[in-house]
């Protein structure tokens, strides 16, 4: 399996398959800093990034926004003083798609 961060998101159709349990383990091992959270029955990938201040948190947030637009796949983002919580899941299938693991890996690449 090539590095997830080098892959492109595929258009996520409403009938696209969620990742299997085995894929969750396999892909999850490639993004070890991320956790799987289940909210209202929807599995989501989540990671908290720490920064020295709010300005740096916003710089990262804006880079992430650009990435999301490039891939047309968008995260949940909570930007606070010194930290940004990023959450990836696929709204169209109310769960986790391979796209979400790809985007989590790409998000990690934004950190200098
Ligand atoms: C209309 C729909 O929102 C768009 O097709 C895209 C936009 N970005 C998206 N982002 C995420 N995370 N999941 C989606 O299903 C999704 N759909």
TrEMBL record:
InterPro entries: PCD_sf, Pterin-4-alpha-carb_dehyd, Pterin_deHydtase. It catalyses: (4aS,6R)-4a-hydroxy-L-erythro-5,6,7,8-tetrahydrobiopterin = (6R)-L-erythro-6,7-dihydrobiopterin + H2O. Coiled coil: none annotated. The keyword Oxidoreductase does not apply. Keywords: Lyase. This is Putative pterin-4-alpha-carbinolamine dehydratase. It holds the Pfam family Pterin_4a.
């Amino acid at each position: 399996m090539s590095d997830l961060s080098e892959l492109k998101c595929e258009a996520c159709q409403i009938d696209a398959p969620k990742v299997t349990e085995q894929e969750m383990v396999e892909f999850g091992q490639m993004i070890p800093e991320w956790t799987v959270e289940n909210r209202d029955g929807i599995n989501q990938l989540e990671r908290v990034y720490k920064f020295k201040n709010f300005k740096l948190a916003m710089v990262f947030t804006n880079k992430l926004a650009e990435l999301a637009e490039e891939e047309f796949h968008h995260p949940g983002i909570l930007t606070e003083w010194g930290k940004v919580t990023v959450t990836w899941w696929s709204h169209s299938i109310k769960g986790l798609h391979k796209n979400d693991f790809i985007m989590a890996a790409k998000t990690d690449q934004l950190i200098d």
